[in-house]
Amino acid sequence: MIAGKNIILGITGGIAAYKSASLVRLLVKAGAQVQVIMTPNAREFIAPLTLSTLSGKPVITEFFTANTGQWNSHVDLGLWADAMVVAPATASTIAKMAHGVADNMLVTTYLSAKAPVFVAPAMDLDMFKHPTTQHNLDLLRSYGNHIIEPAAGELASHLIGKGRMEEPENIFKVLEGFFSDTLDLKGKKVLITAGPTYEKIDPVRFIGNFSSGKQGFALAQECADRGAEVTLITGPVSLSIDNSHVNRVDVMSADEMYDAVMEHFPLQDAGIMCAAVADYKVEHQLNSKIKREKGEAPVLTLVKNRDIARAAGEKKREGQVLVGFALETDNEDAHAHEKLLKKNLDFIVLNSLNDPGAGFQCATNKVKIIERDGSETVYPCKDKRMVAKDIVDVLVNKYLKS
Ligand code: CTP
């Protein structure tokens, strides 16, 4: 429920700032207290008077209010807020937030905020695509911020592409969803597998895959934020998760992941098999390094790894829920259906490598959820944390309702 929540709306200097007035209106109408903080440039795009009238509070831009000399405490504001939303967020503000350049009231308050932070980027398509911006957004995500992906369409420059700030109604829905779902997994135990597995060839080499673990970690964060006790069984990734409700179990190979899942799954209410488990391992791992100069190039004999999801599906007891993933390159729906049945899953999350913005390494994903009764829900391309929210919504609302 948004009613009664204290929300800081940070507005930066982009043309989409005019849309922020509608966002203030939606939040206030829903019963939230809204404190607008503008960057100095934002005032060129929309009049502070419009925003203070709609929010019923003076807009803050400076550290001091010039005529009264009143000190605007970013620390107090940071503590007051239940959420902070930066919409629109320009490339410049995103960079400052990512690197702690606290040279204005908005970024200073961001650094003091204890509440969840939502960032809705808005900029020209090339600025959005630029590796600097993408890297800064990744940094913000890694600090636990929620990125509300911009939409594609005609931009202020008249160019067509991705960079348009998400509509205020949709930003509002993200916030509404965030507050309404709080703790709906309380008392539940969820096991999540994440990342790749590494299959050792010799002490220095392995067979692996490109999985970054981002989707699995986003699921773990989402479930923990909603009150679940999470067991996160992860292959080798360079991600961290800081949540006392997440028990992280690090494994290397598919065999180690299998053992960990078999140990923990019986105690769970749900399992989400998100790992990209290697299908094959080397039949005979070598204990010393294969040397280049010695003899012929080696021929590796591979043997099949055990299917962890399938083994969990066979052991699934009444009331337990099992969710799987399918990453496909062709014949996507048919393969996903087959896996859903073969592994005794309750639903499967399909992503296709043919969709831009989906799959390995990227920060976004585009998924379709397929259920046993044949129902299918297609979602647009979103930040992996938002995708996690969609998946957990289905898990909670359709499968774990007690
Ligand atoms: N999976 C698993 N153990 C394996 C292989 C896959 O737990 N050894 C799980 C994945 O975590 C995912 C689902 O099974 O939830 C589907 O994985 P995927 O690699 O798409 O399917 P495979 O069964 O390996 O089939 P293929 O590689 O032939 O597409």
Major sheet summary line? 8 strands, mixed
Question: Helical content, roughly?
Answer: 25-40%
Identify the bound ligands.
cytidine-5'-triphosphate
Looking across the biggest beta sheet, what order are the strands in?
A: 12-11-8-13-16-17-19-20
Decide which structural class fits the backbone: alpha/beta
Instruction: Find the count of extended strands (DSSP E, 2+ residues).
Output: 21
Low-confidence regions:
none
CATH T-level topology of the largest domain:
Rossmann fold
Tags for this model:
Rossmann fold; binds cytidine-5'-triphosphate; 5-stranded parallel β-sheet; 13 helices; alpha/beta; 24% strand; single chain; 8-stranded mixed β-sheet; 402 residues; 21 strands
Quick overview:
By secondary structure, the chain is of the alpha/beta class. The protein contains 13 helices and 21 strands. Bound molecules: cytidine-5'-triphosphate.
Describe this structure in words.
This protein has 402 residues and is of the alpha/beta class. The protein folds into 2 domains: 6-181, Flavin prenyltransferase-like (Rossmann fold, 3-Layer(aba) Sandwich); 189-399, Rossmann fold (3-Layer(aba) Sandwich), CATH 3.40.50.10300. Helices cover 33% and strands 24% of the residues. The chain has 13 helices and 21 strands. The chain has an 8-stranded mixed beta sheet with strand order 12-11-8-13-16-17-19-20, sandwiched between helices. A hairpin with a 2-residue loop joins strand 9 (199-202) and strand 10. Helix 1 packs parallel to helix 2 (48-55) and helix 3 (74-80) crosses helix 5. The longest helix has 16 residues, at 384-399. The chain is elongated, with a radius of gyration of 24 Å. The mean pLDDT is 92. It binds cytidine-5'-triphosphate (CTP).
